[in-house]
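Quick illustration, no need to memorize.
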Amino acid sequence: MFCDIIEFHNPRIGRFVAWKRQSALSMVLAATPTHVMNFRKRSSYVGPITFVPVDNPLWPVFTSSPVDAPGFMGYAFDHVTMAPGYEALKDTVVKSILKELMIFDTPKNAAAYGRSIGRAPYAAILEDEDAQVQVGQAERTSHLTFSSPLRRQLSKYPVAERIRRLRAKIKAVDDCIAATPNTFVH
């Protein structure tokens, strides 16, 4: 799946991109359009599923326009690291799926940029309070998120062992917080 081949340098940016491109998270990567057609012919599954043929000579090659605007943090694509073994897909598959999704720090800066170009930018905005609520809601209703080193590390274990290991990590953090003095110097 698309969400398994990329991760973001900054997990917070990854959360906002995941919210903005929720439908892209579940895209299934297939080797070729022929593989997709063969699956469709043989399968009785009729639910929604989006396939992305990886070996497709029609992938567009494009460069994102340079942007010089306050608060512009780059395109989502600029913040991506590929999962090992998928590096060759970055400039075709990943760039095409993330498209021109821009990252802005605040709604004010995104709006100012939008006024300068005459339309609202296609953007994930990190300090947008309404979006933060929606991101939290989306995370509770969807179990999909972008890849992470922890997820890859845990993938080799059965579910019960994953849960045990995650609980141990959470306990270690809780113990560290509890052991930290909470007095403030005035």
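The radius of gyration is 20 Å.
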